[in-house]
Amino acid sequence: MTLTLDGVSKVVGDATHIHPTDLRLEKGTMNVLLGPTNAGKTSLMRLMAGLDRPSAGHVSWEDEDVTNRRVQERNVAMVYQQFINYPTMSVRDNIASPLRLKGLARDEIEARVGRTAELMKLTPMLDRRPLELSGGQQQRCALARALVKDAGLVLLDEPLANLDYKLREELRAEIPRIFAESGAIFVYATTEPEEALLLGGRCATLWQGRVTQFDDTPLVYRRPADATTARVFSDPPMNFLEIEKRGDDLVYGDQRTMPVAALGLDEALADGHYTAGFRPAHLSLAPQEGATRFGTTLQVTEITGSETFVHLDHDGDRWIGLVPGVRELEPGAALDVHLEPRHVYLFDADGALVRPAPYAEAA
Fold first, then answer.
1. N or C: less crowded end of the chain, CB within 10 Å?
2. What is the DSSP letter of 237?
3. Coil, strand, or helix at residue 223?
């Protein structure tokens, strides 16, 4: 059981929503679409489902071309960010509704509803109505109605975005278990890198309608193919520093220099322009052995509880650091930050990865 996108694109008027895309999703896999708002996640899902037809390319299901087949003729289920239940029906009838539309026998409907309710931990609530449930239980009801169809392709479009933190964490832990037991192809759209890592499976990163990389989720995080993928798979986004290698030196900012070893680079690296990238959590306010110091100006702080985001200006570059503890720092103050070379990625002038961070390779 496979879903294949072959050169699929979507153009509306003068706007390209999805650039030509090739993807192959296998049976029993969790596939995460990760990207910011308007990156193309929902547009790509609608093409997979048959809700929209591509402007070019083909969609195949088990090697059969279904490009022009309506969504009603495909074995697809979809759950949206705004979860929808029928408020006047019981949970039992909500879950059973797609099976009744198919005209299945009553015994089969009851058996499927029972199995799915057990899977979703809804059995004690089958006789309640959705408005008598918590937000997480209502979302489980919507998920159950999708899963009960035994669809080969289940599309989840930011299904946890409107739930509070505790409920999101609860369902994030359950979804991989549900997916593993169903055997369907799951496609899960999210804007959150942390959520992608928690879900695991495979990850397609999207930016402005393009799939920039598709591979095992931890690999995409540790070894992004380019600077755009690294930016997508970092929250807050990865910090960047434009550098030029000249012999044994690196030139940056207003013609300041540092030795090549300061960023852990090989002296044999060809001279030229590069971009160094590093994640916010790898900037430290405390000096560390072997770390490189950068002078910055503090713009603002955001205290999240046990950690503090520090927004920094470095010669016009906007950097963000994530540091432990509650830091009450004065905006406009000079602030030294420290970076260990092992946390530095290197990208060439076109943005392609030249060297992953050594720590990431060892992870």
1. C
2. P
3. coil
pTM: 0.88
Burial of 30 (0-12, 13-18, 19+ CB in 10 A): buried
Class of domain 293-338: mainly beta
Bridge pairing between strands 283-284 and 249-252: unpaired
Distance from C-alpha of 228 to C-alpha of 360, rounded to nearest angstrom? 17
- 41-65 pLDDT, tens digit per residue, is 999 999 999 999 999 999 999 989 9
Q: DSSP secondary-structure letter at 248?
A: T
- Long-range CB contacts for residues 319-327, cutoff 8 Å, separation at least 24: 319/239, 319/280, 319/283, 320/236, 320/237, 320/239, 320/280, 321/280, 321/283, 321/284, 321/285, 322/236, 322/280, 322/281, 322/283, 323/283, 323/284, 323/285, 327/285, 327/301, 327/303
The percent of residues above 70 in pLDDT, for the chain, comes to 97
Distance from chain centroid for Cα 217: 9
pLDDT of the residue at 362: 58
Confidence band for 102, pLDDT divided at 50, 70 and 90:
confident
Please report which helix (H) or strand (E) contains residue 12, including its range.
strand 2-12
CATH 3.40.50.300 location in the chain: 2-232
- Could you confirm whether domain 238-282+341-363 is CATH 2.40.50? yes
Q: What is the per-residue DSSP string for 304-326?
A: -SSEEEEEEEETTEEEEEEEES-
206-242 per-position pLDDT tens digit: 999 999 999 999 999 999 999 999 999 998 999 999 9
Task: Name the strand (E) or helix (H) holding 73.
Answer: none
What is the tens place of the pLDDT at every residue in 120-136? 789 999 999 999 988 87
Cβ-based neighbours of 336, under 8 Å, separated by 6 or more? 285, 293, 294, 295, 296
Contacting residues for 33 by C-beta, under 8 A, at least 6 apart: 41, 44, 45, 187, 188, 189, 190, 203, 204, 206
